[in-house]
Design brief:
Elements lengths: L6 H10 L5 E6 L11 E6 L3 H14 L3 E4 L5 E3 L4 E7 L7 E4 L2 E5 L4 H10 L2 E2 L11 H7 L2 E2 L2 E2 L4 E7 L5 E5 L12 H4 L2 E8 L1 E2 L2 H18 L6 E4 L9 H7 L6 E2 L2 E3 L6 E4 L5 H19 L8 E3 L3
The structure holds flavin-adenine dinucleotide (FAD).
The site of flavin-adenine dinucleotide (FAD) has 32 residues, from β3, α4, β9, β13 and β15.
C-alpha cells in the first residue's frame, strides 16, 4: 500500500467527520464477507453530510477514494487500499415507506429493506431478503436471485457524481443489466434509491422469503466465508456446473477452495489470502477455458493491487 495522505491532510480529514466514524489502517478483512483484505489507509463510515465534505476534500487534494458497501462481493488485496476507503453503511441507512414506494439510503441492508416491505404488506422484494449486501452495493451490481433483480423494482437512484453533484436519475437510465450498472464505469456513488412494490400479505411475503432463504441454506456453503457466486453465469450455462465438470470441486490454493457444496462459490476454508483466492480464480478460468472454451468472468469485484 502506497501512503497517500500526509499528517496535515489527516488532521483535516479528522476535522470533517465524527471521531467515531474514522480510523486508520483498518483491516479490510473486518469489512468483507470473505474475511480477507489488508488495511485501508483511512477508513470511514460517514453520514451523508460527512461524505459530501470528504469527497470534496479528497477531490481537491487528489486523494484516492474507494467506496464499499457491506463488502459481500469484494476481494480486497492483501496489501490493502491506499487513500480513503468509504463504507456507505450504518450512518446512511434510513428507510421510509410511502404507499407502495420505499425510499432508502444506500447503506440500508437489502434484508432490512425487504423486512420493512414485508411489515408494510408490500410484495416484490422477497428475492433480495437473503442477499447479504447493502442497497447501494445492490444497485451497483443489480443484485438478483430466484428470478428477481433490483432492476425490476427500482424506480429512481440518487447518486453523487464525479463533480460532487447530487443527482436523482430514473432507474431506467442506470444501465442495469445482469450484474452490471453504468455506475461501474461512471464512478457515481449511490446514496439512495426508490423502489416500487405491489400489494401483498405480510404472512405470504414472509413465507416466500423464508422459502428462498431455506433454499440458500441447503445449496450454498454458508458455513464458510465467501463473496457469494465468484463468477457470472455464462450465456446458456452455469459457472458451478462447468467448474464441477472440469473436476475442480474441492480444488484448493492455500486456504481458498472451490466449495465442495457448490462449485460456483470460492470459500475461505483456512485463513486464505487474497493472493490465494486470486490464484484459484485464475486457475479455474484457465482450466474451464481449456476444457469447455468458456471464459468465466468474475462477478466478485477486486479492490487494491493484484
Ligand atoms: C453468501 C452470499 C450470497 C450471495 N448471494 C447473492 C445473490 O443471490 N445475488 C446477488 O446478486 N449477489 C449475491 N451475493 C453477492 C453480494 O451480496 C451482492 O453483489 C451485493 O449486492 C453486494 O452489496 P455490498 O453492499 O456488499 O457491496 P460491496 O461488496 O461492498 O461492493 C460491491 C461493488 O459495489 C461498489 N459499491 C458498493 N456500494 C456502493 C455505493 N453506495 N456507491 C458506489 N459504489 C458502491 C463497490 O466498490 C464494489 O465495486 C452474495 C454474497 C454472499 C457472501
Amino acid at each position: 500500500m502506497n501512503r497517500n495522505i500526509n499528517e496535515t491532510e489527516l488532521r483535516e480529514l479528522r476535522g470533517l467527520v465524527d471521531e467515531g466514524h474514522i480510523c486508520l489502517d483498518e483491516p479490510m478483512s473486518k469489512h468483507t464477507t470473505f474475511r480477507i483484505g489488508g488495511p485501508a489507509e483511512v477508513f470511514m463510515n460517514p453520514t451523508l453530510e460527512e461524505l459530501q465534505s470528504v469527497l470534496a476534500f479528497c477531490k481537491e487534494r487528489e486523494i484516492p477514494v474507494t467506496i464499499v458497501g457491506n463488502g459481500s462481493n469484494l476481494l480486497v488485496s492483501d496489501d490493502g487500499i491506499s487513500g480513503v476507503v468509504i463504507k456507505i453503511g450504518s450512518n446512511m441507512a434510513g428507510i421510509e415507506v410511502s404507499g407502495h414506494e420505499i425510499y432508502a439510503e444506500a447503506g440500508a441492508m437489502l434484508a432490512a429493506v425487504a423486512r420493512t416491505a414485508e411489515k408494510h404488506n408490500l410484495a416484490g422484494m422477497e428475492f433480495a431478503s437473503g442477499i447479504p449486501g447493502s442497497l447501494g452495493g445492490g444497485c451497483i451490481m443489480n443484485a438478483g436471485a430466484y428470478g428477481g433483480e433490483l432492476k425490476d423494482i427500482l424506480t429512481e437512484i440518487t447518486v453523487i457524481t464525479k463533480d460532487g453533484e447530487v443527482q436523482t436519475i430514473p432507474a431506467a437510465e442506470a444501465g442495469l443489466e445482469y450484474r452490471h450498472s453504468r455506475f461501474m464505469e461512471s464512478g457515481e456513488i449511490v446514496i439512495a434509491a426508490k423502489m416500487l412494490l405491489t400489494d401483498g400479505v405480510e404472512e405470504e411475503i414472509r413465507e416466500k422469503s423464508r422459502g428462498f432463504n431455506q433454499s440458500r441454506r441447503e445449496k450454498q456453503p454458508l458455513n464458510f466465508p465467501s463473496a457469494g457466486s465468484t463468477f457470472k453465469r455464462p450465456e446458456g450455462n452455469f459457472a458451478g456446473k462447468l467448474i464441477e465438470d472440469s473436476g475442480l470441486k474441492g480444488y484448493q490454493v492455500g486456504g481458498a477452495q472451490v466449495s465442495e457444496k457448490h462449485c460456483g462459490f470460492v470459500v475461505n476454508v483456512d485463513k486464505a489470502t487474497a493472493k490465494d483466492v486470486y490464484q484459484l480464480i485464475t486457475d479455474v478460468q484457465r482450466i474451464v477455458k481449456e476444457k469447455y472454451d468458456v471464459e468465466l468472468q468474475p462477478e466478485v469485484r477486486f479492490l487494491g493491487d493484484f
